[in-house]
Amino acid sequence: MLKNVGSLEAAGKEKFKSVEPEIRSELIFSQNDLVAATIATLIIVAGTEGAGKGKLVDRLNKWLDGRDVETHAFWDETDDEQQRPWIWRFWKRLPQRGKIAIMFGGWYWDPIYNHALHKIPKSELEKRTGRIKQLEQMLHQDGLLIIKLWFDLTPPKYELRMKKRREVTKHIRSYIEKQKVQPTYKTFMKASNEILEMTHTPECPWIRIEADNKWVRDISVAQVLISKMREKLGKGQQKKSSKSTSNTISAGTSQINLLDSININSTISREKYSQKFDRYKMQLQELSWRAYDARRSTVIVFEGWDAAGKGGTIRRLTDTIDARLYRLKSIMAPTDEELAHHYLWRFWRHVPRDGYMTLYDRSWYGRVLVERVENLASKNEWNRAYQEILDFEEKLTDHGTVLIKFWLHISPEEQLKRFDERKNTPWKRHKITEEDWRNRDKWDQYHHAVSDMINRTNTPNAPWKIIPANDKFYARIEVIKYVIQVLEDALKI
Fold first, then answer.
1. For the chain, which terminus, N or C, has the lower number of CB atoms within 10 Å?
2. The pTM is what?
3. Is residue 416 over pLDDT 90?
């Protein structure tokens, strides 16, 4: 099933030198076209030990324009990486549009070695490879060119190169290799072939390169890269010309209107609010430190209507938590750097370490709300985002992160009242903008989008909590009470 490209006639150094200028020129021209088309490229380099992957990558960095290339190795996990979902370290290093990232092993190296050493059960292996396929499919659909190269050595060549490597005591990997249990060639290849078969897809296929002859190896890789880049450029132009710009939202797209099933006018007196808040404040202070001691991270998402009181609610909540334990991320329009990546990239960057907390004032749900209603994402993009978000949140909760999602719900009448109050109060006037008024005119469209969002992303591990927020004091109490409840359940208190 896996395409094999190492079928060139035996080549030596002289043959290599004769074709290198043409290969190098075509490669740099293809790279420049990708830069012009703002297409990101990820090259995963994996394979048998001793296959010359390092030398090959050195040559690629020489051939390509190094200003647009970054190379990443994943030998050891840092403390930061160990305390976040396993995929976090790779999301951080994904290339922005127009750039190339070369990853040694990428997200494959740990599964392959653990499988070869029988350290991972079959059920976990299938789960991990399934997640890898989901990730690659999502990145491919977002426009990332993924080229997966596997370098093979025949057993005699493998034994010869391993012998030479052991004789070179100053080899950069010699010390590292001595500290690790290494699988045999046979068990490594058996495990590798199984995983390659499981993750070989039409969109992101594995391409096997024969590495016995280093000159054939390097020419083969260059030919593959040129072919894949040109193919991507052709598809990119076709996709661009046929892309639909219609994101019209029809009425009644959601099956059940959960927003209208709550009592939006629930209230609480100021006296009861003060009494309850003081009690809950002490509870949450203690719980946040217990979560820290238990190494349980927490992500809290705040979504809601304009003027629903998200900012005030967040301030009251963070007033109860030690500032050393949390980070607040207010999500605004994406920067140029963020636009140059997959839309989830900027949220992965701020996933908290174990024991810490991140609060998002608006979040990744902008993809299916603002970007949907305002035609900033195509219908295909925002429809695809529901499953991408579910996968993202599942990776968080699988890691043990406590995920809490709030929608603060108010009526159109209450929103208008708060808009007028902001407009007429000098120290609140900065809170109201022309965009807020324009969004209000699209209330019905946003209502349909919110209903779809809640219905399609309300899961047992990451349920939505809809907060009646016409009364700000009631909303604040409900939020802090729910956070306490979820943390107590997670910490089994």
1. N
2. 0.86
3. yes
